[in-house]
Amino acid sequence: MEQAVTFNVDGLKLSGVISVPDGLAAHEKRPAFIILHGFGSTKNAGNVLTPSAMLNKLGYVTMRFDFPGCGDSEGERGLLICLQQVAATREALTTLAAHANVDGKRIAVMGSSFGAAVAVYTAGTDERFAACISASGWGNGAKKFKDQHGAGYERFKAMLEEGRAYHAKHGKSMMVSRYDIVPIPEKLRGHVLEGSIVQMPVETAQSMNDFCAEEMIGKIAPRPVLLLHSAVDSVTPTDQTISMFNRSSHPCEMHLFSGTDHFMFAERNQRVHEVVTAWLKEFFPAQGEAKVHEAH
Fold it and tell me: Against a cut of 0.90, is the pTM above it?
């Protein structure tokens, strides 16, 4: 069962969907997940719908929503300010916790790519989140952009500088292509959902550059964290997740996968599905209590 919901953050109305597993009684409570979409995408992207369906089948309630400036949500189109996305995720938890079928003390957050960075940061700053899953995520925006752009990094930095000068002169934002912010190889652009934002204010790039989720990951413990990444990611460098793992505290697991790329859930990789399912059973089960794991 799906239910359209709206909630507010910073005076903006955001659009979301809550999905309840089949067969739940009217007031039967289950743990839940908030699933965050990627860069300039929407709540209907493959990297959101696929894990949402998987989690519903396993017995979890799920919520997905469009970030401010994306999809059906209000906000300046394409203006993605990371800390505003964090605030939106916190408000989403407040909304989801009030649902009749949700155990408000057992709500986890999961995200892919941009959404993964927001998920980690939010879980590290809001103790109401009971667990966190990051897929193809990043923890240090400045280093990520340097590695993503490679030989074109100086051009990227010049774009940021030009954007600041443009705003100072004209009093409005300079618009840039999403692919000038986050390069995505042609072979993977089919995973960019139709309706995703193509032109964005340059302030979006600056916000991402300044965002450091890795500074927050160590604060999530003792709540469990699962970090997933392709062993060879064509979009976000794999060492972003490795660095976050090195900064994490127990219990945190990291899995690097061969045979898949940046959009691992949209690619419906079976091994990713199996790892997530096993981790959930151990650390955040849909029914019953999680096992207690002592630090080593």
Answer: yes
